[in-house]
Amino acid sequence: MVRPELTQFRRIVVKVGSALLVDSNAGEVRSSWLAALADDLAKLHHEGREVLIVSSGSIALGRSRLKLPRGQLKLEESQAAAAVGQIALARIWSEVLGDHGIRAGQILVTLQDTEERRRYLNARSTIAKLLDWRAVPVINENDTVATNEIRYGDNDRLAARVATMASADLLILLSDIDGLYDAPPKNNPGAKLIPVVESITSEVEGMAGDAESELSRGGMRTKVEAAKIATTGGTHMLIASGTIEHPLQAIANGGRCTWFLTPANPVTARKRWIAGSLEPKGTLTIDAGAVAALRAGASLLPAGVIRVDGQFARGDAVIVRGPDTREVGRGLVAYDAEDADRIKGRSSPDVMIILGISGRSEMIHRDDLVVGGSRHGDPA
Ligand code: GLU
Fold first, then answer.
1. Ligand 1 atom index nearest CA of 218
2. Which of 249, 235, 250, 244 is nearest to 177 (CA)?
3. CA 62 to CA 88: how far, in whole Å?
4. CB under 8 Å to 63, separation ≥6 — which residues?
5. 147: which residues sit within 8 A by CB, 6+ positions away?
């Protein structure tokens, strides 16, 4: 079981919990700790890696700024506290990253944004564009509109969804504990840290227990749930202690943590999801030039499409066929059937004129496309 190195990863999501970010007594942000974390994040960023942050703290921070008494908040109270806290949180991230010349961009997501495919694709494009611009997305649940029934509630699972949505290759959960132990360490002084989990068996689930701390909702159980989401979606995950200064540097130096390994690399897992788990709603027939381009790894542009069949909406899975009607691959289409039909065979500037908006230039982005290669005996 080889422990991976941080240097192997190119797109990394770092989740920071409320208990780390907000001092539970003073109710304020732990600024020198945060500045040290920002140094680590900036280092990854300046090495050319793409960094995304999932930051909790809106409710905890809002609560302290509003001087609310301790104890359980009612739904509308936590929503309103989050409104106050989130604005402060965004400012803090913007400042600490700004100190390193890095732009932060805030994204607040709801459960529906990750569960509904069209909204999922939309959020994903925004994240991709921010990364493209070398900005750092800072993401939290939109706690101001989330209700008890329709919410993640914990940022561990949210971070795992975001990590797979962004096709990240690594998710780091910074926590108040340095990893998964073979028994909950609070009640078991002899418990041992598991350095690498290769697959999440019921035995591993049993080790998680139910540790909860006052400020963070996610105990080890939700972290193991997050690991399931991440590793099934092709993202490695690790749990490490964030209580020390420079926690990412510590991981890079071989510090204690638990790795949850994904059996597949992100692209393969995501593409497997596209290829296998969705019902195709239509077919795009493309010309020979586009077939060659797709096989070489390009996106499908409207210009290469000859024919559009079926009733599909933007984000639906479609089959892509070559001029000989053989299946070339499958993908998630960026236009609905009607628009796809209007722009087929057209160049990108024409597409803008026809649709009257500057839409996405690809009919199917290559990240959303699985090309069958020589599956049917075609030359690659
Ligand atoms: N989204 C919540 C917040 O920012 C936190 C959820 C969690 O701590 O896991 O306050």
1. 9
2. 244
3. 8
4. 27, 73, 81, 85
5. 75
Closest CA to 97 of 60, 138, 56, 129: 138
The 10 Å Cβ neighbour count of residue 22 is 25
Mutational pocket test of ligand 1: of 16, 56, 86, 89, the residue with most ligand atoms within 8 Å of the beta carbon: 56
CATH architecture for residues 271-371: Roll (2.30)
Bridge partner residues of 134 (DSSP): none
Q: Cα–Cα distance between 154 and 141 in angstroms, integer? A: 9
Residue whose Cα lies nearest atom 6 of ligand 1: it is 154
Q: Which atom of ligand 1 is nearest to the CA of 19?
A: 8
Instruction: Classify the C-alpha dihedral 162-168-173-179 as positive or negative.
Output: positive
pTM for this predicted structure: 0.74
**φ, ψ for residue 75 (rounded to 5)?**
-50, -50
Say whether domain 6-264 belongs to CATH 3.40.1160.10: yes
Across-strand partners of 196?
259
pLDDT tens per residue, range 291-323? 999 998 899 999 999 999 999 998 888 999 999
Helices 75-98 and 31-46 pack at an angle, to 10 degrees, of 60
> By the 8 A CB rule, do 369 and 296 touch?
no
Residue 322: closest CA among 282, 366, 291: 291
> Model confidence over 4-38: pLDDT tens digits?
888 889 899 999 999 999 998 888 899 999 999 99
Domain ranges of the chain: 6-264, 271-371
Other Cβ atoms less than 10 A from the Cβ of 377: the count is 6
Q: Say how far apart CA 190 and CA 202 lie, in whole Å.
A: 21
- 3-class DSSP state of 282: strand
